[in-house]
Amino acid sequence: MTILIALLAAAAGILNTVQTGANASLNKALGQPILAALIVAATNAAVYLLAAPFLGLGWPGGNRLASVPWWAWLGGAMGGAYVLAMILLAERLGAAVFTGITVTAAIVTSLLLDHYGWLGFTRHAAGPWRILGGLLMVGGVALLSLF
After folding, report:
1. What is the pTM of this model?
2. What gap in Å lies between CA 146 and CA 89, rounded to an integer?
3. pLDDT exceeds 90 at position 146
4. Residue 53 — φ and ψ, nearest 5°?
5. 30: pLDDT strictly greater than 70
6. CA distances (Å), 106 to each of 31, 64, 101, 111, 122, in order?
7. 94 DSSP assignment
8. How far apart are CA 102 and CA 80, in angstroms?
9. Contact at 8 Å (CB) between 140 and 104?
């Protein structure tokens, strides 16, 4: 089961990178970044609705809604900001550099989130090997950017 989960995560990473090119191409063809982002949001919603019969869709009670941390409501806005950045920057930077920068920023951020247990993550200390991994990511992006 762990291998299957890792393969699904790898597929999500592949889709994330391919999505970057698709969204940048959509923006280039339309010449309207906000329209492109709205189309991306609409197709996202369509995927969610298609998945609903398999994953379930319901409205939680008031107590559950009240228990949601304030920052958890901002995930969609963060996703929207990411899509806009993708639409506006990916073509200029190229797929490798854009993805490298965003993944490296995500790795460094995840090291902090894990180390301190922020945003509900289980604490995983940022030991020397994890820090070295983050530094290697930064070095890799530098190489991608230079060559």
Report:
1. 0.82
2. 17
3. no
4. -60, -25
5. yes
6. 29, 29, 8, 9, 17
7. -
8. 14
9. yes
